[in-house]
Design a protein that fits this description.
Blueprint: E1 3-5, E2 11-13, E3 15-17, E4 24-27, E5 68-72, E6 77-84, E7 94-102, E8 111-116, E9 125-134, E10 140-146, E11 154-161, E12 167-174, E13 185-190, E14 195-209
Parallel strand pairs: 4-5
Antiparallel strand pairs: 1-2, 3-4, 5-8, 6-7, 7-14, 8-13, 9-12, 9-14, 10-11, 10-13
C-alpha cells in the first residue's frame, strides 16, 4: 500500500478490493469521474422495521454491489473498513465502519463516504433514502444526495446525530432537476467532528413522478 499526494490537497491511500457480497471499497478523490453506470436490475426491495414506512420498488443503489469511496480533505485523517455486524436487526449483516481521527472545524466536511448513483434520476420525482446507522460516540453526519458535477448542489442534505444502537433512518425528498447525463452522488459527509460511524443496508428508492 502506498500514499500518493494528489493536486488540491487530497490524499489517496491505496485501494481495498473485497470480493463477494459487498463489492469493492476504494479510497480516492472526493469527486470521481463516472466510469459508466453499473446498474443492478435485480436489487431486492429494501425491508423496513421499527415503525418505518415500508419501501416499494428496487433501490437505485444496490448495497451489495456498488462500492463506497472515501474522500478526505487535509488535514483530515480517516480510515474505513468492511466488517460483519451480526447484531444488525435486519437486512445484510455487512456494514461499513468509518473512523475520523483528525478534522478541520472550519470545513463543511473533512471526510465523506460516496457512492455514485448508477442510474439516471429525473427531476420532480419523489425519492426515499433508507439505511441503518450507529455511532458509539454519537457522531454527527450529513446525509446528502447531490449533483454529480460542480457545484454539487444538494437535493437532500440532512444532519443526523447517530445513536450508539443500530437505528434505521428514512428520509423522503423530491428532486428538482434531472440527473440523467451525469448521474447523482450519494454521500455520508463526516469529519464534522472526531468519531466513528457504521453504515449498512443503504437504499435509495425512486417512488415515481411527484403529483
Amino acid at each position: 500500500m502506498k500514499v500518493i499526494l494528489k493536486p488540491g490537497g487530497f490524499v489517496v491511500v491505496g485501494t481495498l478490493v473485497v470480493l463477494g457480497i459487498f463489492g469493492a471499497v476504494k479510497v480516492l478523490s472526493p469527486r470521481p469521474e463516472p466510469s459508466g453506470p453499473s446498474e443492478s436490475p435485480q436489487a431486492k426491495p429494501p425491508v423496513s422495521v421499527s415503525g418505518q414506512k415500508p419501501l416499494t420498488g428496487a433501490s437505485l443503489i444496490d448495497p451489495t454491489r456498488q462500492g463506497w469511496s472515501l474522500a478526505t480533505q487535509k488535514p483530515a485523517a480517516a480510515t474505513m473498513k468492511l466488517q460483519v455486524s451480526p447484531e444488525l436487526p435486519a437486512g445484510s449483516q455487512h456494514s461499513l465502519h468509518l473512523e475520523v481521527t483528525t478534522v478541520d472545524p472550519n470545513k463543511y466536511w473533512c471526510a465523506q463516504l460516496l457512492k455514485k448513483v448508477p442510474q439516471a434520476v429525473e427531476g420532480n420525482h419523489n425519492l426515499t433514502v433508507q439505511f441503518w446507522g450507529r455511532s458509539v460516540k454519537k457522531t454527527a453526519v450529513y446525509v446528502v444526495f447531490e449533483e454529480g458535477l460542480s457545484p454539487h448542489t444538494a437535493e437532500l442534505q440532512k444532519n443526523v446525530r447517530l445513536t450508539p444502537e443500530w437505528r434505521q433512518y428514512q428520509f423522503p425528498f423530491r428532486t428538482t432537476k434531472d440527473h440523467t447525463d451525469t448521474h447523482a452522488n450519494f454521500c455520508i459527509k463526516a469529519g464534522l467532528e472526531v468519531g466513528e460511524i457504521e453504515i449498512a443496508n443503504m437504499h435509495v428508492v425512486d417512488n415515481g413522478k411527484a403529483s
